[in-house]
Design brief:
- Keywords: Coiled coil.
- This protein is of the alpha+beta class.
- It folds into two domains: about 1-50; about 50-220, no CATH class.
- About 50% of the residues lie in helices and about 20% in strands.
- It has helices at about 1-50, 60-75, 90, 105-120, 175-185, 185-200, and strands at about 80, 95-100, 130-140, 145-150, 165, 205-210, 215-220.
- The strands form two sheets. Strands 1-2-3-4-5 form a five-stranded antiparallel beta sheet, with no helix packed on it.
- A hairpin with a 5-residue loop joins β3 and β4.
- α2 (about 60-75) runs antiparallel to α6 (about 185-200) and α5 (about 175-185) packs antiparallel against α6 (about 185-200).
- The radius of gyration is 26 Å and the shape is elongated.
- The N and C termini lie far apart (about 90 Å).
Length: about 220
């Protein structure tokens, strides 16, 4: 009987020891997973930052512009996206698009409401499949056109059939503020603040490309 009791105690101690070891191993594994996740997030963030490409900006403005872009991407209430054109010369010409991908239904509804109230910007469907996009497209005449539709990656988009926004002779900081105002008050505040604190040139073109399938962000500013 004594032998049996001793064996049971020994087995019980062994099981407890194993459970404690497994608990420590599990704790260490969770800790390691957290460390790896932090490292992965840091690497992804670093890659995104390195993938922000600023073009046609004076060298002395590069750092300020990068900060401005990072702030927009970090704080803006909508995702900024564009298309990878089949005809690359289109994106290199004057009609490079500015696309605001709406990820919030309330924001989208607010745009529709304010557009209806303003009676200036009208919704248009470009006839492409994909995600709902609101974008402003500078045409070759120097005016700015606007269209909303469902777009797809690698779509060859022209400005044909797109309504022009009256009174826009160039994409200035003021124009961006007007666009932001249509989207939301908070977004307008963010863009106003960034434009003023970045001390960027008063007139520039903003083209932001978010390649979702590559996990990168490519941003172009030009005077």
């Amino acid at each position: 009987m004594s032998n049996s009791f001793d064996e049971l105690q020994k087995e019980n101690k062994e099981i407890k020891r194993r459970l404690e070891e497994e608990s420590r191993d599990l704790h260490n594994a969770k800790k390691r997973i957290s460390e790896l996740e932090r490292k992965i997030d840091s690497i992804v963030e670093e890659k995104l930052e390195k993938n922000i490409v600023i073009m046609k900006v004076p060298k002395q403005e590069q750092e300020k512009t990068e900060e401005m872009v990072s702030s927009i991407i970090g704080h803006i209430g909508v995702s900024i996206a564009t298309l990878d054109f089949k005809a690359r010369h289109i994106s290199q010409a004057a009609n490079s698009p500015i696309l605001l991908e709406l990820n919030d239904r309330n924001t989208r509804n607010l745009i529709l409401k304010k557009q209806k109230e303003a009676g200036v910007l009208k919704m248009e469907n470009c006839g492409c499949s994909g995600k709902n996009i609101v974008y402003f497209n500078e045409d070759l005449t120097g005016g700015y056109s606007y269209r909303q539709g469902r777009l797809r990656w690698n779509a060859n988009i022209s400005s044909r059939g797109v309504r022009k926004v009256p009174g826009c002779d160039g994409l200035t900081a003021e124009f961006l503020k007007e666009v932001a105002q249509i989207i939301s008050e908070s977004l307008c505040y963010v863009i106003n603040e960034i434009i003023e604190t970045a001390e960027c040139p008063p007139q520039f073109k903003l083209v932001v490309v978010r390649h979702l399938y590559k996990g990168g962000v490519r941003t172009e500013f030009s005077n």
